[in-house]
Amino acid sequence: MTVIMNGNELSKKIKENLRLRATKLKEQNIEPSLVVVLVGEDPASQVYVRNKTRAAEQIGINAIDIRLPETTTEAEILDLIAKYNADETVHGILVQLPLPKHINEDRITQAISPLKDVDGFHPVNMGHLFMNEPLALPCTPHGIMEFFKEYNIDVTGKNAVVIGRSNIVGRPMAALLLNANATVTVTHSRTQNLKEIAREADILVVAIGRGEFVDADYVKEGAVVIDVGMNRNAAGKLVGDVDFASVNGKAGYLTPVPRGVGPMTIAMLMQQTIEFAERSLN
Ligand code: GUN
């Protein structure tokens, strides 16, 4: 039997707790505030940003929703970031990725103050994470660690395999698992014998961006399988990187798409914003 991990339910519970923390902050005259910047018209990004601002509203976080045209220059975005870095009433800043091709994403990520970097993408925050002294955690891997906590999955000493090495998911996921004492293998598009390696995993995190790539052949009986994918299949249906029907019944635990990792990412973004606002009290 496979336990289907419910990201909707868990994220709702987390957000209810965050609403109480937001209320407490307001009683102390702090209004938690998050700047969300979207450049261009990418439809997927528009949905993600909409979900983020809506979650903020539900919790009582002031979301400053900034939409900029595709033609915006890098200098204009850097000016905007500098303005909000200096604004003491703003606790978190995020620029939705990907950015249009004429803009250097690294330069944008590095311009955000590490103290307001709710995504945890700044190299300073990445460095702290890899040294197991985190100040801000990338939201998707953080949300996955919350799943383990909720479902009493102890990763200590376990064989964890991450498929994908992106800065947003794969690399920070590996660091978090290592910090939690798992034995971590990071695999990617050039990995040889991927299937054999995946089959050894007690915990398998799949973040490769290829629809329904991982089927039951990649999965050890009883393994924990986390699906970070968001793809449209040929029929236009939203699917993960894991072939759900194939893996369901073999895995011990499995996250669905949608209603798995996605809502947890947003809950962790909100949690990071509240934490930054709480730090401003001290
Ligand atoms: N694009 C895909 N995932 C993310 C994320 O977590 N944060 C931002 N800013 N952009 C993304």
Automatic annotation (TrEMBL):
UniProt-recorded Gene Ontology molecular function terms: methenyltetrahydrofolate cyclohydrolase activity; methylenetetrahydrofolate dehydrogenase (NADP+) activity
UniProtKB keywords: Amino-acid biosynthesis, Histidine biosynthesis, Hydrolase, Methionine biosynthesis, Multifunctional enzyme, NADP, One-carbon metabolism, Oxidoreductase, Purine biosynthesis
Pfam families: THF_DHG_CYH, THF_DHG_CYH_C
Annotated catalysed reactions: (6R)-5,10-methylene-5,6,7,8-tetrahydrofolate + NADP(+) = (6R)-5,10-methenyltetrahydrofolate + NADPH; (6R)-5,10-methenyltetrahydrofolate + H2O = (6R)-10-formyltetrahydrofolate + H(+)
One GO cellular component term: cytosol
Signal sequence coordinates: none
EC numbers: 1.5.1.5, 3.5.4.9
Pathway: One-carbon metabolism; tetrahydrofolate interconversion
Residue intervals of the Tetrahydrofolate dehydrogenase/cyclohydrolase catalytic domain: 5-119
Domain of life per record: Bacteria
The keyword Hydrolase belongs to this UniProt entry's keyword annotation: yes
Tetrahydrofolate dehydrogenase/cyclohydrolase NAD(P)-binding domain location: 138-279
Function: Catalyzes the oxidation of 5,10-methylenetetrahydrofolate to 5,10-methenyltetrahydrofolate and then the hydrolysis of 5,10-methenyltetrahydrofolate to 10-formyltetrahydrofolate.
Known partners and oligomeric status: Homodimer.
Family, per entry: Belongs to the tetrahydrofolate dehydrogenase/cyclohydrolase family.
Name used for this protein in its record: Bifunctional protein FolD
